[in-house]
Amino acid sequence: MLRFLAAATVSLMLSLPVFADELVGSYTAYIGQADIYNSKGQRLSEPWQVLRQDRANYHRFGISQPGDEWDPFFGDINNRAIMERMVMNGTIDPVAARNLVNGGATVFVRIYGSGSTGRYVRVTVAP
Fold first, then answer.
1. CA distances (Å), 89 to each of 32, 114, 120, in order?
2. Which residues contact 12 (CB under 8 A, 6 or more apart)?
3. Is 77 domain-assigned?
4. Global pTM exceeds 0.90
5. Which segments of the chain are extended strands (E)?
6. Domain count, the chain
7. What is the predicted pLDDT for the residue at 17?
8. Most buried pick, 15, 78, 121, 125, via CB within 10 A?
């Protein structure tokens, strides 16, 4: 009986649909001097902080540099608030992270999730 239950459980698990995250948005941005300081003038030291400030500058404060693009996700302040988690759940190359924090870099950000829920980002920086 125990074997039957174990086999039935495995069979059920294999028959459930797999929910894969989909690309819910993407954007390109140039990280300028305004993006590496927060709204209080403090220098930012983490990649997620710079990405979040860049999106706040773009969507909330109307500050942008040539190369900045609109995105469908981070216009919402609540979505910007989860930027740290999304970067931690995603990928960012260490060299890209350093270049991003130093400013003067063009970043490509792909936002993955389901529907309007973002789960992680993949960040690359142009050489």
1. 25, 14, 5
2. none
3. yes
4. no
5. 22-31, 91-92, 105-114, 117-125
6. 1
7. 43
8. 121
